[in-house]
Amino acid sequence: MKFFLRRSVFYLFTAWAAITINFLLPRMMKGDPVSAYLLKNQGRISPEAAESLKTLFGLDSSKTILQQYLDYWALLFSGDLGRSFSRGLAPVTEVIDSALPWTIGLVGLATVMSFLIGTSLGALIGWRRGSKADFAVPVATFFSTVPYFWMGLIAIAVLSTTLGWFPASHAYGKGTVPNLSLDFIGQVIKHGALPALTIVVASLGGWILGMRNMMLTVLDEDYITVAQAKGLTPRRVLWHYAARNALLPQLSSFALSLGFIVSGTLVM
Length: 268
Hints:
It is found in: Cell membrane; Membrane. By secondary structure, this protein is mostly helical.
């Protein structure tokens, strides 16, 4: 119980600090979002509307910073995340709702695929240590060091523009109304294949390297020697003894990578 209490206090403090910094940073910077919005719409917004915008965005100069801070927390607890300047002052919750299913579908599937493929390849490479299969490790590691946006641009230039194998943008064809038909599902898969492939290729290196290193450690354990001495097939020793035990740290890393699903591929 003490452990859970300490962790709870730590996470609550972290959440408070993150939210407080998120509140203070825009107010410490020069200018404010409302002023930037007014510059883009010069002559189309009256002074009264401008003051209403400042009130709407919690920038009312008649309130102290403390009052604005308390209002900020009250809005968060009520589920109001504010308005989006880039989406015509639409509620932020609606913007998130429209983007979240596509993000989870694309990045979630790509993360699971990269974990399964990378872990399987890492187990095989570790099992055949010292063979030509080791060459895959530096190759995969190289791609994992390439910036996502650069790899995406190269993929679009080669596979979309030059070869025409994949669409270069959007989640489905222009003019298509989202539905549950096979045609629409096919369009979504076709449009999502290239970014998913880019994410998988860029993240394979970590999974392969991590699993290979754990396999090298596990293969020196006594129970592996005993399993081989019993006459078990190499395939059974690999997947039921070595890989199963080497997989445990990979599962922890996979759990941590789930946060990447909604935060790590904005550009992609």
